Structures are given as C-alpha cells and as structure tokens.
Amino acid sequence: KSANPQWREQFDFHYFSDRKDMLDIEVWRKDNKKHEELLGTCQVDITALPTKQTNCLELPLEKHPGSLLMLIAVAPCTGVSISDLCVCPLGDPSERQQISQRYRIKNSFQDIKDIGFLQVKVLKAVDLLAADFAGKSDPFCVLELGNDSLQTHTVYKNLNPEWNKVFTFPIKDIHDVLEVTVFDEDGDKPPDFLGKVAIPLLSV
C-alpha cells in the first residue's frame, strides 16, 4: 500500500559478452495471491554505462506514471564461471594447490568477505516429466545461490538430458542454500517447472 516503495535490495547478475546488452526491468502490483498488474517497464543499456563505478539512474517507466531509482555498477566478474566438464577449473592440480593455500587457516583474516567458492558439476537428469504433447521436454537447469543465478543450455526433446557443465560461485554467506531447478523451455511462454532440489552449503 505504497506509491513510493523502498526495496533497498541488491542483486548480482553475471553479464557475459555473448549475452544481450539490455537489462529489462518490470514493476508489478499485487492485490492478492492471484491478481497481479503490470505497473510499468524500463530498460538499461549495459554497454552505455561507465565501468568500475556506481551509476545512479532515475528511470522513467514506459507508458506509465512513475520512475525507478537504481544504483547499477558494472565490474569485472571474479570467481564466477561456466565451463565444460573437460576444462573444469579445479581439474588443474596447481590451481587446486593455490586455492588450498588461499584458504588456509592462517589467511582467514586477510579478506573477511572472501569466504570461499562453490564449484558445481551439473552432469545430467534422468526420467524427467514429459511437458510436451509429443511425450518429450526441452529441459534446462538453473542454479541459484543467494542472489546469484546461472543456467545451462537447453537440451531439446529429451527426458534424460546431459549438460556436463561446471559452475563456479563465490560464497557470500555460509548459511546460503544452493537451489537447483529444472525447467522445460516453452518458446515465448514462461518455462514449465520440472523439479527442484535444495542443498544447504553447511551440508556439503
């Protein structure tokens, strides 16, 4: 019940050079669990923003009254990667040794925010739900840790997809939960939910 809401939320998006350069933003209003209304949209051209600084932007909503005030920073991405299984970042013994050295107990207080990182190998899924009329699905997998999100490619018309991808996340809170969700790609429509698993970091 506010025309001037303050969210004060921070989200980290991993921007890779092969992705589109526009950040799409939508503002929605909720009356109850079932009714939602779009209050406006706006876009930010990421390539036009200066890097390595925080940019304060006031963005008018298109075709609707109101505007959004946002702070957007474009900075080099450290500790985050997507790679094929054959070039796994921790597959190199010398790199494993460097990381072991970096997180030795005596180095604990050199960088308090550098808790560590999580490497996840997404191999395959088995016996997924058939979401299409032809008895198949077009599955892809989304990994979320805190406000970080990465995803695999889509394997079309397959209930036993193999992705064989390696994902690396920096850990910001040891109490976070890794959520792995499988969706069925459905063209221009929202993807269909095929299943989910949640893994607390403290259980690893």
From TrEMBL:
Bilayer topology term: Multi-pass membrane protein
GO terms of molecular function: calcium ion binding
GO cellular component: synaptic vesicle membrane
Pfam families per record: C2
Database matches in SMART domains: C2
Domain C2 span(s) in chain numbering: 1-59, 93-204
Compartment annotation: Membrane
Family to which the UniProt record says this protein belongs: Belongs to the MCTP family.
Predominant place of localization: membrane
Domain of life, per lineage: Eukaryota
Protein's recorded name: Multiple C2 and transmembrane domain-containing protein 2
PANTHER family: C2 DOMAIN-CONTAINING PROTEIN (PTHR45911), MULTIPLE C2 AND TRANSMEMBRANE DOMAIN-CONTAINING PROTEIN 2 (PTHR45911:SF2)
Keyword annotations from UniProtKB, A to Z: Calcium, Membrane, Metal-binding, Repeat, Transmembrane, Transmembrane helix
Xref: PROSITE patterns: C2 (PS50004)
